[in-house]
Amino acid sequence: MEFSCTRQELLDGVNAVSKAVSARPTMPILSGIYMEVQENSLRFLATDMELGIEYTIPIRATKPGTTVVNAKIFNEMVRRLPDGPITFLLSEDSSLLKVRYFGSELSLNTMNPIEFPVLPHIVEGEHVTLTQGQFKEMTRLVGFSASSDESRPWFTGILWDVNPEYIRWVATDTHRLSFLQGTMVSSTVQEGRQFILHAKTLIDVARLLHEEENPIHLTITKSQVLIETEQMRVILRIIEGQYPKYQQVIPKEYKCRMTVKVKALLEAVDRAALASLGKEGSNIIKISMDGNILTIRSNSPEVGHIHEEVFVDREGDSISIAFNYRYLQEALKVFSVEDIYIDLTGPLVPGVIRPIGEDRYLYLIVPVRTV
Amino acid sequence: MEFSCTRQELLDGVNAVSKAVSARPTMPILSGIYMEVQENSLRFLATDMELGIEYTIPIRATKPGTTVVNAKIFNEMVRRLPDGPITFLLSEDSSLLKVRYFGSELSLNTMNPIEFPVLPHIVEGEHVTLTQGQFKEMTRLVGFSASSDESRPWFTGILWDVNPEYIRWVATDTHRLSFLQGTMVSSTVQEGRQFILHAKTLIDVARLLHEEENPIHLTITKSQVLIETEQMRVILRIIEGQYPKYQQVIPKEYKCRMTVKVKALLEAVDRAALASLGKEGSNIIKISMDGNILTIRSNSPEVGHIHEEVFVDREGDSISIAFNYRYLQEALKVFSVEDIYIDLTGPLVPGVIRPIGEDRYLYLIVPVRTV
């Protein structure tokens, strides 16, 4: 095994597969990154047996071969390499990977590539193709609503609801819910198909996508999903569990619709959140309205009282309602539009936010009951 | 108490005094920031009884007064205030500080300003004046060599060695030592005076200085030092203890002088430091020389072997020596020059680094004994 490449090329590959390396590997070999050199390509592979990521970069090889190096050490090394050509050479007995640049040489200990688990070969299954831009929009608008509580694993995922006519994504932690209807480039799904994929992993995959218009392909089997781009293959396990019927919780109508500036509302919520500071702090903010003024109130024994006013356009009733500020704040941070609708029905009915201009999307927040 | 100002003006004051608020205050009132409004000024004051910081900003007051607010909450609030004019108003009974902007109002709970300890009034003492630029250079080049081990408090400080003819600063953690001879604008010190001030605090003070050419005044008493600029007053306790005689450890001559590029050496040391990763990692790097090549070697059972070559100009003997890479790395990061001298005498004699162009400075590293 002998090849040359630059630091930046290596960084791309190492960053991509590092997401699949477990912090506490169950077998020593899984602390490694598998590298396979062919004539014009270097394929990186890492897996924690739940998730596998493969990433291929173009290189100039003089001798093919395979090896496994410790992921953490390789990652740190690549970051510190100089600009300019770098040559990699596997020693005669395969025990050392020699890294050469200018007059210097670094010899990394290797592991036996035969021990490294191969990713399953997936060809059979239903196929869905999206643009990478659509995939990224999905993770941005939906991903943050998933739970991080592993005791109910289905809530840590994003539900993919795929039909011949549409694709929908949903995530919820039971306190709020994100819903997006997307568009597909193509699909072989004949009947409705629902499956749950880990939200954090999808967000990690989205970060590796740089070409909005290029395709991203999914192959969906019974228990796994393969996600592919030109450079990357990711294999994820489907999360088991019964997802709640999301259609039933989305209010069909509203009694009050406000048009609100995202920036003004976010700044007011940020200040109202001051009441959450301190030991007896509260996450609850109370919302009420009078004419075209939306009032947000919060208070805590340590901080004091906060009274924020935001100018809105309003049609319909005046409604008082209370929310956990975090669920409002997190959503307001992900919107790329300037204005949103807030639709309310009553103090105990979930509020619905619809970004104006991202109209295939909605965000639902369950209110807090207050005295 | 009633006044107006902008968010940025408040931020400057709050940031400055926050360094003096203890994370674990010994009295509840010390979790606060004292604010004193006069006709054209707002004075902030905070202290943990070891360190006191006062910072004054210009404002437009309609009514003078004093109050104390919780430092953490006030800090968070100021960050979240909108751009534009902000009005502060103390309630009739002094229990709430009302903060008004646009139509909104925030009422912060206050504490009784009478309980707040006043900073001692220091006028008597010896005086030294520096430029703020000189003060900043001192903290940058010397401060990082101080120890963070509070069990020998004098090593957490910077020694000020003031004489009618010169001012010198020294910091050491016993593994390495920084020395700088500076220039004073003026001084009333008649005989030699040595005192130790906490390095971290001096670094914090330096961060608040923005006018290189403006003066910074010190008033030195038996147990305290007052540091003053136009806007700021800082009172520090002098650290007690016997500082080692630093002149005795600085080698007077050398047997080998190398001229080295800082950037190339730092990159090589960063890579050699890879050997410190992992459970059995080592911080030791071995240095040797052959002609105009400086070789750095390190190794560890987990990582492998590292062999780095750096081109140098050399006069004198070829010497092999070993260092803890951290002491080399930390120093190389603070230099603002491109080239340094490294002066060596033998494997067990401290090495001396002199930045070329910062020639009133030297940095000494104690070598590691290796087999």
Automatic annotation (TrEMBL), chains A, B:
One of its GO terms (cellular component) is DNA polymerase III complex. Forms a ring-shaped head-to-tail homodimer around DNA. The gene is dnaN. Confers DNA tethering and processivity to DNA polymerases and other proteins. Acts as a clamp, forming a ring around DNA (a reaction catalyzed by the clamp-loading complex) which diffuses in an ATP-independent manner freely and bidirectionally along dsDNA. Initially characterized for its ability to contact the catalytic subunit of DNA polymerase III (Pol III), a complex, multichain enzyme responsible for most of the replicative synthesis in bacteria; Pol III exhibits 3'-5' exonuclease proofreading activity. Residues 130-245 form the DNA polymerase III beta sliding clamp central domain. Residues 1-120 form the DNA polymerase III beta sliding clamp N-terminal domain. Belongs to the beta sliding clamp family. Coiled coil: none annotated. Residues 248-369 form the DNA polymerase III beta sliding clamp C-terminal domain. This is Beta sliding clamp. One of its GO terms (molecular function) is DNA-directed DNA polymerase activity. Its main location: cytoplasm. It is found in: Cytoplasm. Keywords: Cytoplasm, DNA replication, DNA-binding, DNA-directed DNA polymerase, Nucleotidyltransferase, Transferase. Pfam families: DNA_pol3_beta, DNA_pol3_beta_2, DNA_pol3_beta_3. Gene3D superfamilies: 3.70.10.10, DNA Polymerase III, subunit A, domain 2 (3.10.150.10). It comes from Heliorestis acidaminivorans. The lineage of its organism: Bacteria, Bacillati, Bacillota, Clostridia, Eubacteriales.
